[in-house]
Write a structure and sequence with these properties.
Elements: H1 2-13, H2 20-28, H3 32-54, H4 85-121, H5 123-138, H6 141-151, H7 156-183, H8 187-194, H9 199-207, H10 212-235, H11 246-255, H12 258-261, H13 264-292, E1 342-355, E2 358-371, E3 375-379, H14 386-393, E4 401-411, E5 417-419, H15 425-431, E6 436-439, H16 443-446, H17 453-464, H18 470-484, H19 500-512, E7 518-522, H20 530-547, E8 550-554, H21 558-564, E9 567-572, E10 575-581, H22 582-587, H23 592-599, E11 649-652, E12 658-661, H24 676-681
Parallel strand pairs: 3-8, 3-9, 6-7, 7-8
Antiparallel strand pairs: 1-2, 1-4, 4-5, 9-10, 10-12, 11-12
Length: about 675
């Protein structure tokens, strides 16, 4: 209670994580060059609004002061007919800026709608929208712009905006589609899907914010390009030359031979204005990139107190979802191999990757049971189906992956059961993170790079606990950080400001946010050094014993798996080939593949031995060998192995326990008796 009260007090006094709009603007304007760009742009925008009101003359009225240089009466001189160039510049600013920003808004909206939608949704939507973008990309934009403008000579600024937008949106859409295709595969997007986020919210909150720099660059670049295009069309006489713009000024200057007569004041101001606004927009773009990308920010943000995330938008309540604070699950009795309390039962699961008429099984008939409080380790080489199995259990697969058969039965604490594969989308949103969560293998990719760590944990709480107050959410974040061993003041840090081990701890904190019954950990120690791996393993074991959850731990590191797991399942070619207690697996592996894996790791004690490994490569799932999938690499294979596919046989150990091994060497002793075949394999230690 004291800890909770302290956490609440700290949360209430914590500064805002985002710093508010005012602070964000100050950070944006910290660079002198960015500040100069913003000021210049604002000056041009203000002149575009008030220009016609403050212009000293009618820009079209003639006078006796023909081709006069700059003076107090005419600040920028006059034209051949005595028209005031300064007044023309003020009037022309409105048309040029309107075309520039109007075209940029319309072009950017079209680019974002088509590019992001096509990239994220995929399938037929992607094909249709990409085809549309490709058609506009192959069309020559300049001739098309000239032709369209020639047919709309008297449509004014609106016609020019439409012409530029129609001819210019496809390139931005193509870039955004490519960026979205990259982002949608990132683990933090998968994590957002796992927490129950709607597609529209994932796009608006996870996809688009990571592309703001690209969108901003496209928008500001389009402004400059549109102003230049409008000036070019006007200079060629393809627009209404009676409507004043900077391009119109250049048209009349060229038509009346201003360059030949030396009347520089007639054409220099318009050209200089176009160049200055282009430079100013480029400076603003550099500043936005620095502001959006946390890695480029000059201000240190990593030493703030625990902060409350400012995430806009209300979520609707979903049936059956807890609305209040997180309720702690009581930790059960310590797990033993004799336990029969099954929490997750995977039955004959098959996952295929579909490509037209081709179906490639990545998980082929896998059955396993996870008992309450157990750590089930899954081992195997790359391509054996480990991560595919993890994504199938959490229902995070997207096309072309397809679960073609099987059941995944979850048993609640009250004994009721539910088939995870039969859940509707709304039921699945409530199940994920509430009962089952996942920790992805690369924390740098699984954490959103532009969101603070505290905000990402709060996102989970907001999605599943809309009834929690801001203070309760902030207190829960502080509590979770304490559980996984992260200082509370790192709540305001971005992922790149944390070490690899601390990022992985943050991912574990996200997984524990709602106190789930099961946590699937897909290679959570990948790319970490052995010291940090040790810390992560010890923390997982500590939390498991304290909180009583069950773990599915997936890795190719057998030494780590043996130390952490209660039970180990070895996968090869999409199947489980051995399942046994971790201690028995280390002392007496039964399947030849398991023996080969263990022989690939050096021992820290005992007699020296040569590391043998396994000859050959894992099988191509598209062309699996007949019979036992391992027989082309197996040193103990015999004739029947190439034609008979072995089931999992019950094998009795010399220690008295039992194991399962999919090897024909145990076919004769499937009743549990020791056979000559077993003796022929020998003992490992």
């Amino acid at each position: 209670m004291a800890m909770q009260s302290a956490a609440l007090a700290e949360a209430e006094t914590a500064p805002d994580a985002s710093g508010g709009p005012a602070r964000g603007l100050l950070r944006l304007l910290r660079s002198p060059l960015t500040c100069a760009g913003v000021i210049i742009t604002l000056v041009f925008l203000i002149l575009a609004v008030v220009g016609p009101w403050i212009a000293p003359y009618d820009p079209s009225s003639v006078s006796d002061s023909a081709t006069a240089g700059p003076s107090l009466s005419h600040w920028l001189g006059t034209t051949q007919t005595g028209q005031d160039v300064y007044s023309q510049m003020l009037y022309g600013a409105r048309a040029s800026m309107l075309v520039g920003f109007g075209s940029a808004v319309l072009t950017t909206v079209l680019s974002v709608l088509v590019g992001v939608t096509a990239g994220y949704l995929g399938g037929i939507s992607d094909e249709v929208l990409s085809l549309l973008a490709n058609i506009f990309l192959v069309l020559p934009s300049l001739p098309l712009t000239i032709i369209l403008a020639a047919y709309l000579p008297h449509s004014g600024s609106l016609g020019i905006i439409l012409v530029i937008s129609v001819t210019g949106w496809a390139w931005g859409a193509r870039v955004l589609r490519a960026q979205t295709l990259s982002l949608r595969k990132r683990d933090f997007v998968e994590a957002a899907r796992a927490t129950g986020e709607k597609t529209s919210r994932i796009i608006l909150k996870d996809i688009l914010p990571n592309q703001v720099a690209v969108v901003a660059a496209s928008f500001l670049g389009t402004v400059t390009a549109a102003i230049l295009t409008q000036a070019s069309l006007a200079f060629l006489g393809l627009t209404d030359v009676t409507q004043w713009s900077w391009g119109t000024i250049l048209y009349w200057a060229q038509a009346d031979s201003a360059l030949l007569t030396g009347a520089w004041w007639w054409f220099v101001p318009a050209g200089l204005a176009i160049a200055v606004i282009g430079t100013a927009l480029s400076l603003v773009n550099f500043g936005i990139d620095e502001f959006i990308n946390p890695r480029l920010r000059l201000a240190g943000i990593g030493t703030k107190k625990a902060q409350r995330a400012q995430v806009s938008g209300r979520r609707t309540r979903r049936p059956g979802r807890r609305q209040g604070p997180v309720v702690r699950r009581p930790a059960g009795a310590p797990f033993t191999q004799e336990s029969t309390d099954v929490v997750l039962d995977v039955r004959d699961l098959r996952v295929e990757y579909v490509n037209g008429t081709s179906r490639v099984p990545a998980v082929n008939g896998v059955s396993l049971r996870l008992r309450r409080g157990e750590v089930l380790g899954i081992a195997g080489e790359s391509g054996s189906g480990k991560s595919t199995l993890a994504y199938a259990i959490t229902r995070l697969h997207k096309p072309p992956a397809e679960i073609s058969q099987g059941e995944i039965v979850y048993t609640n604490a009250d004994g009721s059961t539910v088939d995870v594969l039969a859940m509707r989308d709304d039921e699945l949103r409530g199940f994920r993170w509430e009962e089952l969560s996942i920790v992805f293998q690369s924390a740098m990719h699984a954490l959103n790079p532009i969101m603070r760590i505290g905000e990402q944990i709060e996102d989970v709480l907001k999605a599943h606990r809309p009834g929690m107050s801001t203070q309760e959410r902030a207190a829960r974040i502080v509590e979770l950080f304490g559980i996984v061993g992260i200082p509370a003041d790192r709540s305001g840090s971005y992922p790149h400001e944390l070490s690899g081990g601390m990022r992985q701890r943050a991912m574990i904190a996200v997984g524990l946010a709602l106190d789930p019954e099961i946590i699937v950990m897909d290679e959570p120690t990948t790319a970490l050094d052995v010291v940090i791996q040790r810390q992560i393993v010890e923390k997982i074991m500590e939390l498991k014993d304290k909180l009583g959850f069950s773990v599915i731990f997936i890795t190719h590191d057998l030494s780590l798996l043996i130390e952490l797991s209660d039970t180990i399942a070895v996968m090869y070619g999409g199947k489980i080939v051995e399942m046994t207690a971790a201690d028995d697996f280390y002392r007496q592996p039964r399947h030849p593949y398991s023996r080969g894996l263990l022989a690939s790791f050096p021992t820290l004690g005992g007699a020296k031995r040569e590391l043998t490994g396994i000859v050959g490569s894992p099988p191509d799932l598209r062309h699996m060998p007949g019979g036992c999938a391992f027989h082309p690499r197996c040193p103990l294979a015999f004739d029947a192995c190439s034609s008979t596919q072995p089931p999992l046989y019950q094998v009795t150990r010399t220690s008295g326990g039992t194991a399962e091994a999919a090897c024909l060497l145990f076919a004769d002793g499937a009743d549990g008796t020791t056979t000559q075949n077993e003796l022929a394999m020998g003992e490992t230690q």
